[in-house]
Amino acid sequence: MQNLSDVCDAKLQMNIQRIEEKRREPSNSMELESLSGVFANINKCVVAANTKIKEQNMLVQNALAERSNLTNQVWRYLLDCQITVQLNSYMKRKRDLEKAIGNLNTNIAKKTDEKLKKEKEIIALERHTTTIQPTIGAINTLLKSFGFEGFVLARSKRDRFYEIKRPDGSDAKETLSEGERSFIAFPYVPI
């Protein structure tokens, strides 16, 4: 821009000198230097400067948006260039832990199912292996508490059955009195 100003000044000075010369000698023909090319170049420089000024003004007006944009670019750079290794390592550990948790939950579900199956098996087995010994003991205690000492219940040689025995070990089934029979039936009446 300074060169254009100097060129313009030089041409103006030259034109002023020629005009002065023409005044002194009006009969001489003279030609003035054209300034249109210089002014066109100056005009281009002014338009370019005005465009830059507008861009700068837009930047100033959009400072908040530009600051946000710059912050995002800085974070993107940090993520892409600086933190990628740590982030990838963290994400891998997270996926591994989630997979381990999933496996543990699957194993817990399987073990819970197995436990329920075993509990059902135990209940089924207990139904088949129920012993009558506690029943025999309870009835014999009841008999003694009411004063019946002439007979007791004993386990039969056949599984899950019992017999009525006398204290000497003989079978009392045929020799029970009517009262003894009624009383022995009493513990079996459903309540």
Topology of helices and strands:
Elements: H1 2-24, H2 36-61, H3 63-82, H4 84-128, H5 133-145, E1 152-155, E2 162-165, H6 178-185
Antiparallel strand pairs: 1-2
Number of helical runs?
6
Order of helices and strands: HHHHHEEH
Q: Distance between the terminal alpha carbons, to the nearest Å?
A: 119 Å
Low-confidence stretches: none
Q: Give the total of beta strands.
A: 2
Q: Give, in spatial order, the strands making up the sheet with the most strands.
A: 1-2
Using only CA atoms, what is the Rg? 59 Å
Beta content = under 5%
Could you tell me the mean pLDDT? Answer: 84
Return the structural class: mainly alpha
Characterize the largest beta sheet: strand count, sense, and whether it forms a barrel.
2 strands, antiparallel
Short description:
The chain is mainly alpha-helical.
Structure overview:
With 191 residues, this protein is mostly helical. Helix content is 71%, strand content 4%. It has helices spanning 2-24, 36-61, 63-82, 84-128, 133-145, 178-185, and strands spanning 152-155, 162-165. The chain has a two-stranded antiparallel ribbon with strand order 1-2. A hairpin with a 6-residue loop joins β1 (152-155) and β2. α1 packs antiparallel against α2 (36-61).
